[in-house]
Amino acid sequence: MRQPPIGYTFPLSPDGRASLVPPPPWHYSGDFLIVEYRTNPEAVIALLPPELEPADDAGAVAAIFADWQSCSDDLHELDDPIQAQYKEFFLVVGCKYNGKPASRCVYIWVDKDFAMYRGYIQGFPKKLGSIHLTRTFPVGKAAPRVEAGGRFSATCTAGSRFVAKASVTLREISKTGPTVNDPPMHNTRHFPAYDGLVPDVYELVHSGGFDRSATEIWEGDATLTLGSDTIEDLNAIAPLEIMKGYRFSFAYTVYGGKVLAQQDKSALLEVRR
Length: 273
Hints:
- By secondary structure, this protein is mainly beta.
- The protein has a domain at 26-183 and 216-248: Acetoacetate decarboxylase-like, CATH 2.40.400.
- The chain is 8% helix and 46% strand.
- The chain has 3 helices and 15 strands.
- It has helices at residues 41-45, 113-122, 265-272; strands spanning 26-38, 53-54, 60-72, 85-97, 100-110, 126-128, 130-133, 151-158, 161-173, 186-191, 201-206, 210-214, 218-226, 241-254, 258-262.
- The strands form 2 sheets. Strands 1, 2, 3, 4, 5, 6, 7, 8, 9, 12, 13 and 14 form a 12-stranded mixed β-sheet that branches.
- The longest helix has 10 residues, at 113-122.
- The model has no long low-confidence stretch (mean pLDDT 95).
């Protein structure tokens, strides 16, 4: 009997190597630039599913730029860096699940197809975009240092539209670090049905990780501008008050997540009606 092609994700192939995303665990190391700000609380609440409650500081948002290198357990991606390196920009809001602090990614752009697909598996609503961050190097005048006075910036565009621009001028080592995206991430895995509007999979998941580590976190003064002509209504959650900016490096490993709630198709169909 002829064996079917195999793989963790599409495309399937005889030996499975063609898969866009290899099976977990997935290991991540990256540089982060974060700007925390406050916006209209009602606009943030409107982005939450019914399973999540508003945070105490309901209008708080974290705008996060990340420059990642990732790999699976055998590290083969590191021998072909185009399979490992990508950048992304995402907006995270605070919320609560069963009364406990949580966070949620409401919009996210990424510049590689494998990272977008892997995001869907974890419940991140990723779209393709173009993201750039100021790099740091230990030598030369062309790179700021992670020290007082160091200035780091980042930009994101998507679909020929401006999405976001941020800058952080470092002032001192932070005593608290960023707080909006600190609680556990609660995202929604949403996979549409082929024959209708009601999804085949609709799950609230805790996108967790382990083996977390980070460098010293520097904080400072920040600026952030969101695009006014995007498909997403970023005007609704535009900054009304800039809090602080942060810069640091972070690493962790992901191997699955925890399903917290599921909706059956009949219940979702009633909601759509």
